[in-house]
């Protein structure tokens, strides 16, 4: 493959991780096409000149979008991302995270695509890992349908590599957080806590709060995605910090940033969630020339400021007049609903 591919197709490019990645790729001058059904759009506009195809990847018609664009590389970020949702609806989770991925792999071969990079999950695939930080050689043992679906999709990546010569790489993300993440859903303690604090509600902790996660800032993850697109690395690579941080520590830090005085509320933990996670990242440093650069405290401060700014914009009176209406329509047509 060419050392610097130029035509990049990004699925889920209007979403949380997608928008940060697309912004970087656009600034670097890549020719980009985003596929997104906008059900989970982050609300930020795509950069100027980046085309958007609004299509559901579970629809077989999405294959024609791929074959028309003929990308050099596909970065597959679109997913059903909730562990709890996968427990409630394993078949629906598999349809999005496995079946749609297989269809996209087939379309990539038909389009003569050279490389396929898949957003997997180091937080969910390993299960109760025997070692922390967990290396990629650890035998996966997922505890949720979400983790099982990501593992199954990785199996298909390997098969397409062996059978069709497609260069494939799975990036096993740890717990990604940062600006533009959805704070109203079920996943992402940082975003959910920011949303609750800014609306005057007490922060909520599931379980005892001593469970740990490897929290990695979204800007660092976007850098890893870009480096992966330019690399020849194959197989699976962990993307995290190697550091385990307790949920209670995260909530306490955000509470201080918000100057919130009350105690958190505790609720029952969710089924299918792993108790402790941290990812070994030596392989990413070696093969992608990448390490996470943002300390958790700095990342939390950036994230909270972003949520504050968004809350301020949402609370501001709407500007009247045709120009304002036109600007709002242009924003919505690019990035989907808030």
Shape: globular
According to CATH, the homologous superfamily of one domain is: NAD(P)-binding Rossmann-like Domain
Unreliable sequence segments: 319-338
> Percent of residues in helical segments?
40-55%
User: N-to-C terminal Cα separation, in Å?
Assistant: 38 Å
Classification by helices and strands: alpha/beta
Q: Whole-number radius of gyration?
A: 20 Å
Main sheet specs: 7 strands, parallel
Q: What would CATH call the class of one domain?
A: Alpha Beta
- Overall pLDDT confidence: 91
Please count the beta strands (DSSP E, at least 2 residues each): 13
- Sheet with most strands: strand arrangement: 3-2-1-4-5-6-11
How many H/I helical runs?
Answer: 12
| String of helices and strands | EHEEHEHHEHHEEHEEEHEEHEHHH
Key descriptive features of the protein:
single chain, two-stranded parallel ribbon, disordered C terminus, alpha/beta, 338 residues
């Amino acid at each position: 493959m060419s050392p610097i591919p130029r035509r990049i197709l990004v699925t889920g490019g209007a979403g949380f991780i997608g928008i940060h990645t697309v912004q970087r790729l656009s600034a670097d001058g890549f020719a980009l096409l985003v596929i997104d059904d906008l059900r989970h759009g982050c609300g930020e506009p795509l950069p100027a000149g980046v085309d958007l195809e609004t299509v559901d990847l579970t629809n077989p018609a999405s294959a024609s979008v791929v074959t028309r664009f003929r990308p050099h590389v596909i970065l597959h970020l679109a997913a059903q991302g909730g562990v709890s949702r996968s427990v409630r609806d394993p078949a629906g989770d598999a349809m999005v995270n496995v079946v749609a991925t297989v269809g996209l792999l087939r379309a990539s071969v038909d389009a003569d695509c050279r490389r396929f990079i898949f957003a997997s999950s180091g937080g969910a695939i390993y299960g109760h890992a025997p070692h922390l930080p967990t290396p990629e050689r650890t035998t996966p043992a997922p505890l949720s349908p979400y983790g099982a679906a990501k593992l199954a999709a990785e199996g298909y990546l390997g098969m397409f590599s062996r059978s069709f010569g497609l260069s494939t790489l799975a990036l096993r993300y740890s717990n990604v957080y940062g600006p533009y993440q959805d704070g109203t859903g079920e996943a992402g303690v940082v975003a959910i806590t920011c949303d609750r604090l800014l609306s005057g509600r007490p922060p909520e902790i599931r379980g005892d709060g001593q469970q740990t996660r490897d929290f990695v800032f979204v800007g660092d993850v976007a850098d890893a995605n870009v480096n992966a697109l330019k690399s020849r690395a194959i197989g699976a690579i962990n993307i995290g910090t190697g550091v385990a941080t307790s949920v209670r520590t995260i909530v306490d830090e955000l509470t201080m940033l918000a100057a919130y005085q009350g105690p958190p509320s505790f609720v029952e933990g969710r089924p299918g969630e792993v108790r402790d996670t941290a990812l070994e990242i030596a392989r990413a440093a070696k093969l992608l020339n990448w390490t996470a650069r943002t300390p958790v405290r700095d990342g939390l401060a950036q994230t909270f400021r972003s949520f504050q700014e968004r809350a301020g914009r949402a609370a501001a009176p709407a500007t009247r007049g045709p120009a304002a209406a036109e600007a709002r329509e242009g924003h919505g047509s690019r990035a989907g609903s808030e």
